[in-house]
Amino acid sequence: MAMRAEYAGSRPLRGARVSGSLHMTVQTAVLIETLTALGASVRWASCNIFSTQDHAAAAVVVGPHGTPEEPRGVPVFAWKGESLEEYWWCTRQALTWPEGGPQLIVDDGGDATLLVHLGVEYEKAGAVPDPATAGSEEEAVILRLLAGTLREQPRLWTTVARDVIGVSEETTTGVHRLYERERDGTLLFPAINVNDSVTKSKFDNRYGVRHSLVDGINRGTDVLIGGKVAVVCGYGDVGKGCAEALRGQGAKVTVTEVDPICALQAAMDGYPVATLEDMLPTADIVITATGNRDIVRVEHMAAMKHLAIVGNIGHFDNEIDMAGLAGFPGIRRVNIKPQVDQWTFPDGHAVLVLSEGRLLNLGNATGHPSFVMSNSFANQVIAQLELFTRAEEYPVGVHRLPKRLDEKVARLHLSALGARLTKLTKRQADYIGVPVEGPYKPDHYRY
Ligand code: NAI
User: Fold this and answer.
1) Could you give all domains of the chain from N- to C-terminal order, each with its CATH number?
2) What pLDDT digit, counting tens, does each position of 381-414 carry?
């Protein structure tokens, strides 16, 4: 709201075409409203097949001045429970404009960026994608889509990429993909890493998850968490939020880690650090939060306690081996309710898998609450403004927002929590070597 008030007059995104691929929740609806209020034209898709809140998508389509019969809002291509084909069709719709492509992309996990890059690469190589070579069902879907566009509109993706000024990326996993492209020299346009704004990853990933992990487990299963043995795989920002939330509910929480620094943090925060194998006989709840693949494998699930709950809160569904589970000889799947499945092994024991291994806080619940998303999305709006109005400062590569803007986002949220900042005196500021108005920390400071 503060950003809308600041820019209501100047509408600095006037004329900008923005394509978004980010969970279509009520908070995202407000982000879309803000981008529109700043002058942008927007098209949107969700970045997960289960994360759309249909009422939010509908409200954005209808718009504040429209009716369901005469919608006047923003084109949204998203609904809860898309198939993979539908998901990638939606992503394509959000990226393709009557004018060609977007000028700006808001991405979460990098799927929109991936589709544009793959499309351009195939068009440049003059190669026809072959779904038979795909390593996964989802990859086959993407290759089929690209084979179709190459047949029907051979220059589609080159046209889409042509006007892109840049992308702002929301999450750890998407940022990881961007740095890989930068390293390999295959990045086509500038990118702003919103995730590593302090007011994003140290808040959304941690405090947002601290709220929405338990919300997802409760809505999915309604088991009493107190007294249960919980395992959190990964003790990064998201894992820290998970462990704290589960401990807050009275669970006995154990952490698994590969990084000795994060493992030591977990240990000093009072969590036993063990391997998943150590915990299989006792774990009641296993949560993956690594952004890495193959964390909970089918042999783990085969050795778990009866009715252990297995869920992922990392971005992609490859943290839990769902394909291995489905292919286990003699396994039986019973859908208990949407996004909750009981998988029974031939020996009679079962595991409960949330959201088919996709991020459970958005699949089984409604993701993070608005106040924390306001921090993340203020960074997104600032990133979009930076790319559109100061493009010369952001050459092709991956950039972070300047610290003064990070501090601005924090400052905007303080009064709502009743916080009062202490003001540095000039003498104090000189003593610690910072300007009175900030920024207060060097870039390498870790918070
Ligand atoms: P991070 O990099 O801070 O933490 C991940 C941790 O997992 C690291 O400490 C790493 O050492 C550890 N790890 C990697 N492989 C492991 C293994 N085999 N076993 C145990 N630990 C392992 O990343 P962050 O920010 O915590 O994000 C994690 C994931 O959550 C990402 O995919 C991110 O995109 C996603 N995310 C999801 C959100 C949601 O609402 N569901 C919100 C924010 C991020």
Assistant:
1) 1-196+368-410 (3.40.50.1480), 222-358 (3.40.50.720)
2) 999 999 999 999 999 999 999 999 999 999 999 9
Give the sheet arrangement for strand 340-344, strand by strand: 252-256, 229-233, 285-288, 308-312, 350-354, 340-344, 332-337
Give start and end residues of each alpha helix (H) in 232-359: 237-248, 260-268, 276-279, 298-302, 322-326
Residue 200 is assigned to a ligand binding site: yes
Cβ 257 under 6 angstroms from ligand 1: yes
Strand duo 285-288 + 398-399: pairing: unpaired
Q: What is the pLDDT of residues 237-291, one digit of tens each?
A: 999 999 999 999 999 999 999 999 999 999 999 999 999 999 999 999 999 999 9
Confidence at 441, pLDDT banded by 50, 70, 90:
very high
Q: How far is the CA of 70 from the centre of ligand 1 (A)?
A: 43
**Ligand 1 atom with least separation from CA of 360:** 41
The residue whose CA has the least distance to atom 20 of ligand 1 is 257
Residues whose CB falls within 8 Å of the CB of residue 406, separated by 6 or more in sequence, listed in order: 197, 198, 199, 379, 439
Give the model's confidence band at 354: pLDDT under 50 very low, under 70 low, under 90 confident, else very high: very high
How far apart CA 191 and CA 188 sit, in angstroms, is 9
Residue 67 phi/psi, 5-degree rounding, is -130, 165
Q: Any binding-site annotation on 287?
A: no
What does the angle CA 214 – CA 301 – CA 349 come to, to the nearest 5 degrees? 95
Closest ligand 1 atom, CA of 172?
Answer: 34
Q: Where are the beta strands (DSSP E) in 12-55?
A: 17-21, 41-45
DSSP conformation letters of 47-111: SSTT---HHHHHHHHH-TT--SSS--S--EE--SS--HHHHHHHHHHHH-BTTBS-SEEEESSSH
pLDDT digits (tens, 9 = 90+) for 54-98: 999 999 999 999 999 999 999 999 999 999 999 999 999 999 999
Query: What residues form DSSP beta bridges with 107?
Result: 21, 169
pTM passes above 0.90 = yes
How much distance in Å is there from the Cα of 213 to the middle of ligand 1?
A: 14
